[in-house]
Task: structure prediction
Amino acid sequence: MPRKKRFYQPGVPAHVFQRGHNREPVFFDDQDYLAYLRLLKTAADELECMIHAYVLMTNHVHLLVTPKAENDISLLFQKIGRFFVPYMNKAYQSRGSLWEGRHKGNILESEAYFMICMRYIEMNPVRARMVDHPGQYRWSSYAANAQGMDNAILQPHALYLSLGETTEARQAVYRAGFIAENNPDELELIRACLHSGTPLGNDRFKKTVESAIGCRVGYSKRGRPTSQETL
Result:
């Protein structure tokens, strides 16, 4: 059975995800996380992809990225994997696959869902009960987006820049968005679209995408899925 093609558009943000084989850990110590981030920075620079948010969890990663070209997200993961997998196999005297197949992802309607997906990504460690607050987790973009820590990987999206006229104002508005409790239906929709490749946006946005490629994208029913795993 042929692999399902993930649809991305140049200049359109996408939420992408990759998980370890059999849900096994892909990071074991600080050096592993640092190695991945260095490779992410190198690959993103080479492809001119804009990374807006990320989180590296024990056995999976999430990125919010705007590609320059349609195939750049696939190339991004290929470039990272080409060096990260041999690095891990050598470091831990293992062999074979590290990741559970290809990445998953979907494009976003920026105005409606961009900031929601940023928060979704950076709240992963809290939902996993690893920390009580996203600022306590080292391996995400929260410290940069919300607290002003230098991060050479990230490039701010126009919607993030529109949060305030100054850096401090933007960060304050961004932090305020983490105060409210997560909407369970919203979380479920994000997960469903991520796994199925369904564009995340209103009906007009989805129809525009499907008209452009000449077919339906993602799950056929636009309502809530029957079940989804927590990510």
Notes: The chain has a mean pLDDT of 88. Strands lie at 14-19, 50-56, 60-66, 104-107. Residues 14-202 form a domain with the Alpha-Beta Plaits fold (CATH 3.30.70.1290).
